Amino acid sequence: MTAVDVVIIGAGPAGSALAALMSRAGASVLLAEAAEHPRPKACAEYASPRIVEELTRLGLARDWSDDAVPLLGMDLHAGGRMAPIRYADARGPRPAWGVDRRTFDARLARHAVECGAELRERTRLGGLVVEGGRVRGARLRDVATGTQTEVRAGWTIGADGTRSTVSRLLGVERPVRFPRRLGLIAHYAGIAELADHGEMHVGDDGYVGLAPTPGGELNVGMALPLDGGNTAAEARFAHAIGALPAVARRLAGSRRLTPIRGAAPIGHRVSRTAGPGWLLVGDAAGFVDPFTGEGIFRALRSARAAADAIRAGGDVSAAYQRERRRAFAAKDALTWLVQGFLAAPPLLEHAVGRLAERPGAALRLGSVLGDCRPATDALAPRALLELMAP
Questions:
Q1: How high is the pLDDT of residue 229?
Q2: pTM for the full model?
């Protein structure tokens, strides 16, 4: 049996960031990862500008830049109309980032180890240790040997993504009822016209994003209706590209470099994000859809909220949930509003047309989506009227 202050299940951005923060604060941390870094990830690999501040707090102000490329933003296409989505805060324009999740996640995990955490890769969660109504650790299984170890911990953290075993074992996982989409991802050879920005193309049956990543590659990610029957991923991927002529033209001179990876349904729902002895961070704490591109920032920010709550002591669960509401509630409301637009293509096309005609409104919305301005700025009645009025 092993005893630590914190055991974290999942060494993605949220888990590794929390491991680094807690280790730097003097806690003993065990970080368990089912795979082995570097590992591919079915992710759009497009990160909002604010990851810079979070990585700086981790002590990675410069060390991560080789794993990401700066991007001006996304050009949003719908119904033959295009609006540039860019980002700015009080200091001026801010870049978004195209990341390679293989190297980016591996760097964060290494940093956690450098800060003092113990990392066990190829180690799966076998179960939770629960006594007296409180989670007091986890049972971990070595994938190679099958050996199981009980780890006692003051806090057990679920950072295991949208297929979170921790949330399922805790009984807080809830079904994804809307939106129900299939996510497919592949890398292509880079395109010169998309060296410094990405594109998002929305059609009647989903959307396709094109995001440059390090090494001269292009992430091609799509969210499609989940009701595709038994159609193979290759066929659905090709059909989605063909259904959007602008995407087909973009990719006509490129070649696919990787297999297609997928996830279904996109998203994750939970009834609670904390309880006695446990917290959920990152996508394990709930995830709607990758369209707005803030997943990595949200992972890092939730890790900081968890670390602050644990270090402060007292009612950790209440403090963590309170900080999550403060950090994410308004943005969540905006995210659901965006989902409403995606579900009504004519409405979205109208909004894109309005944004194309009103650069100030487009910059405000982009800055909110990029976490550079408060989400309430885009939810204010005047902002909504500017977006939707005839």
A1: 63
A2: 0.96
